[in-house]
Design a protein that fits this description.
Elements (H helix, E strand, L loop, with lengths): L4 E6 L5 H13 L4 E5 L6 H14 L1 E9 L4 H7 L5 E6 L7 H8 L8 E2 L4 H16 L3 H29 L1
Parallel strand pairs: 1-2, 1-3, 3-4, 4-5
Helix pairs in contact: 1-5, 5-6
The structure holds 5-O-phosphono-beta-D-ribofuranose.
5-O-phosphono-beta-D-ribofuranose binds next to strand 3.
Length: about 170
């Protein structure tokens, strides 16, 4: 990978069904990304060395998704000053509330920009990462704006269909 990119980390292969939505949005916006399974608890040394290596190679945003006692986003933030977005994943009996609290309740000085639980959060993590990269990439900024406009048009089309059906 050369040039600025986003690194998507997830704690387990079981998180891929959620984090794939994040990768799909980045792909759609033509943002370069890497995606890796690495765990704060099961492979702490691999996680730490990947973060250092990715940062050296030009990673500008980390997106870390994990479930249960989710420490991946916090552990990522502990090892870098590159912005970290945390995605809490609903992989246990507490439906992701455990992961939400583990991800969002970071101590002052080690921020994790935490998004919603599950697929919506994974998608918003990608949009947020794209918006961060767009601060120094005019063409990407245009793609992000175009995507927003397209989403707005979809809602207007839905309303038009609803109004037509009521006539
Ligand atoms: C977390 O534990 C992972 O991020 C995953 O959400 C959860 C369950 O992992 P598996 O037991 O499915 O590998 O570390």
């Amino acid at each position: 990978m050369s040039g600025p990119f986003v690194a998507i980390l997830m704690g387990s292969e079981s998180d891929l069904k959620i984090m794939q939505s994040c990768a799909d949005i980045l792909k759609q916006l033509q943002v370069s990304y890497e995606i890796k399974i690495t765990s704060a608890h099961r492979t702490p040394a691999v996680t730490q060395s990947y973060i250092a290596d990715a940062q050296e190679r030009g990673c500008k945003v980390f997106i870390s998704g994990a479930g249960l006692a989710a420490h991946l986003a916090g552990a990522t933030a502990a090892h870098t000053t590159v912005p970290v977005i945390g995605v809490p994943i609903d992989s246990g009996p507490l439906s992701g509330l455990d992961a939400l609290l583990s991800t969002v309740q970071m101590p002052a000085g080690i921020p994790v920009a935490t998004v919603a639980i599950g697929k919506t959060g994974a998608k918003n993590a990608a949009y947020l990462a794209a918006q961060i990269l767009a601060l120094s990439d005019v063409e990407l900024a245009e793609r992000v704006k175009a995507e927003r406009a397209a989403n707005g048009e979809k809602v207007q089309a839905q309303d038009k269909a609803l109004q037509d059906s009521l006539r």
